[in-house]
Amino acid sequence: MKILHISTGIIRNAQGEIFITQRAADAHMANKWEFPGGKIEDGESAEQAMVRELQEEVGIVARNAVLFDKLEYQFPDRHITLWFWLVEEWLGDPWGKEGQPGRWVAQGELLAAAFPPANEPVIAKLIAQA
């Protein structure tokens, strides 16, 4: 069984919109929307991984991120621990640096069904706060 530790950024602008990206067609949970992020490398903290991943995936430098939620999710073939960081201050403009589609969505219009199931509690929490 795979055990993964993933750190993601919930990039929220002053208008209350959140930047999301689409997973690759050949990835686990293909074509689902997601909060940008990725695996935590050996020797990295969850926050350091989120900052690195946002630079690599969407070309921004996160500043003053706050831990929004941490949860665990069990798939048939893998166990995932997810850190979700709320990023409301950054340098640069987010874009799909790896060729992935990206877009801004109003926080209250996030659709849990469009994301991997592990994201559902976080999306419910975001919608409740919208």
TrEMBL record:
Protein name from the UniProt record: 8-oxo-dGTP diphosphatase
Necessary cofactors: Mg(2+)
EC top class, as a word: hydrolase
GO function terms (MF aspect): 8-oxo-7,8-dihydrodeoxyguanosine triphosphate pyrophosphatase activity; 8-oxo-7,8-dihydroguanosine triphosphate pyrophosphatase activity; 8-oxo-dGDP phosphatase activity; 8-oxo-GDP phosphatase activity; metal ion binding
Residues that bind 8-oxo-dGTP: R23, H28, E34, F35, P36, G37, N119
Binding site for Mg(2+): G37, E57
Stored NCBIfam families: mutt, PRK10776.1
EC number: 3.6.1.55
Ranges where the Nudix hydrolase domain occurs: 1-129
Keywords for the protein's UniProt record, in alphabetical order: DNA damage, DNA repair, DNA replication, Hydrolase, Magnesium, Metal-binding, Mutator protein
Biological process terms in GO annotation: DNA repair; DNA replication
Reactions catalysed according to its record: 8-oxo-GTP + H2O = 8-oxo-GMP + diphosphate + H(+); 8-oxo-dGTP + H2O = 8-oxo-dGMP + diphosphate + H(+)
Protein family membership: Belongs to the Nudix hydrolase family.
InterPro entries: Mutator_MutT, MutT-like, MutY_C, Nudix_hydrolase, NUDIX_hydrolase-like_dom_sf, NUDIX_hydrolase_CS, NUDIX_hydrolase_dom
